[in-house]
Amino acid sequence: MIFEDLVRMVAKEANALVPIISFKEVAKDDWRQQLPEIIKAGLGRAPEMVICTHLDQLGMSIIAPLAARPYGSECTSTTSAVRVSKPNFEDIWVEGRVAYDCAEKILGVGNPKTKYEVLEFDEWKEVIVDQLKESELESAITRLTTDIAMTKRGYILKVEGEQLHRMISKSIVDHNRLLSVMGRSQLQFELAYAAFKEIRLLFAEMLEDWRAEENRSQAAYMEKLHKAIHVLQLQGLTVAAQATEKTMSLSHWRKNIGSDVEFFVVSIQREMHSLLGSLKRQFVSFVRELANRCRAEYFDSLRDKIQKTIRDDAQNELMTGILDRLDAFGEDIEALLLPNIMKKVVHSIVAERYNAATAHRAIRNAIVGPLLTRNETSSNGTDADWTDVSTETSSDESASIVTEEKDIQQLGFMLRAPVAVLATIPWFLGVGVWLFMARSKQYLLNVESLIEELQERAIRPYFDGLHEEGVTTLENIGERSSKVAELAIHESLEEEERRYQQERSLKQKERSQNEPPRPIIAVSSMTLLLNLLAADSGLLGIQRHLTESKVVND
Is this prediction's pTM over 0.85? Predict the structure, then answer.
């Protein structure tokens, strides 16, 4: 699943998404281009806020233009200060903002700033509370959050209802098969088992042919990848000349030769990052789309081959089980992971952490917060926003998500960004490279030599790394898809084998004890089957009600 799909899935369950970016892991000049596009594609708009960590990895000269509100270890807790302070007048007296209407009612329009300055904090807080009661904002938020909580609860009911429906349907099929074989004679059993063994051999031969066909298909997809990276690399080689030309057009680095050399190095690297950003994202999107097509083709081709090869009407139930399992395993990229990670994460967020109280508090703070917020200047001159926001803790533990790290790694950048995209262009312009520029204590620039150096020591290795990881991703997606598709068949055949062995054991026991089949077993099985059918019918009715009443927010 690509990043946009994950964001879109979580966006269905949450009211706000706050990206958390680590400067230790993400390329310094690239995340500003990638992240807003990813969030906007999944959320439908740009993110309102981004939280950054590991700011100590960057110099202050870089942090300043990146972070609008740096918040570090020097910012101590000011909860007590907030509770005895008022916000800045300029923060609340801005026409068009939510806070303005309330402030205008309290201060009026005649000399409001003077009136505001003479108000004590307790008086200000008291009139704010009165205005909140008069506006009935609390009741409006309560109704709003109740509707939100009910919407999300309905969504969870629908998802879990679908899962329960699949479980009940499987139990119904199993009991139908159990009842159909209870009256089967020993001869009928042996004939059915012999037919099953023939089908199993037929599946083995079919899988051999299918593997050969898929190897050819995998080679075709790999050839498309090689061609794509070749075209992309040709475009990337022009980046060196473009970055050099743009950097040389700047006049700043010519002013002081003692410092301009270092500035030139930094400037050209940043320019290359900017120019390479779109090419990198094009390649990543292409590989993901190619891998998804490859994965889907594995399952589709196997499904078609089964339907064309196996035509024994006596094996309809077995065939239905195999095809249903292939549909479930081949639904999307998530199925290639052993646990269903994404849905567990979403379910944990909604079902265990989200409720009407927390939603009410979140919306209330978003609306009322500006009126109870003080803007101060910290000791180092950096502005910081302080908001008295109450938080609710939950005693519920997060759902445990158990997986193996290798599962994520083997799927490459289908579930994460490629390592090559995260890596920065190396600081390659060292002493050995500067030899062609330094002569008699003067710096002379051979543009052609510089561009060749950039291409050979930065651009080509960069795209080689991206190509290598793209190949690894595509290979692992193909290998994992093949294994999962074959697993669907093997598991179904093993379950069928166990059914025959259980029936054989039961018949042997009846013969050894000279006991006829007991009607009570058939009656109990029939009773259970009827209960399952009734439960399935009721569950489908609930699902229809959830959908028709539009409680579910898809």
Answer: no
20 forms beta bridges with 51
11/274 Cα distance (integer angstroms): 29
Closest CA to 333 of 114, 119, 481: 481
Using CB atoms within 10 Å of the CB of residue 259, give its burial: 0 to 12 exposed, 13 to 18 middle, 19+ buried. exposed
Q: How far is CA 359 from CA 94, 132, 155, in A?
A: 27, 18, 16
Please state, in angstroms and rounded to a whole number, the distance separating the CA atoms of residues 61 and 256.
19
Residue 182 to residue 522: CA distance in whole angstroms: 7
CB 32 within 8 A of CB 63: no
Q: State the amino acid at position 472 in one-letter form.
A: T
Six token digits for residue 130: 């009165």
Note down pLDDT in tens along the chain; length 554 residues: 455 666 666 666 666 677 777 766 555 455 556 666 666 666 666 666 777 777 666 555 555 544 444 444 443 344 444 445 677 787 777 766 656 677 777 777 677 888 888 888 888 888 878 877 777 777 777 776 666 666 666 677 777 787 788 788 878 877 777 777 777 788 888 888 898 888 889 899 899 999 888 888 889 989 998 998 888 888 888 888 888 777 777 666 555 444 556 566 667 777 787 778 778 878 888 888 888 888 888 888 888 888 888 776 667 778 878 887 787 776 555 445 433 333 433 344 344 444 445 544 554 554 444 444 444 433 333 333 333 333 333 333 333 333 334 444 445 555 444 554 434 444 444 433 443 444 444 445 567 777 787 788 778 888 888 888 888 888 888 888 888 888 888 888 998 898 888 888 878 877 777 666 566 677 777 888 888 889 888 888 888 887 776 544 44
- 198 vs 217: CA distance, rounded Å: 29
* Distance, CA of 214 to CA of 415 (rounded, Å): 23
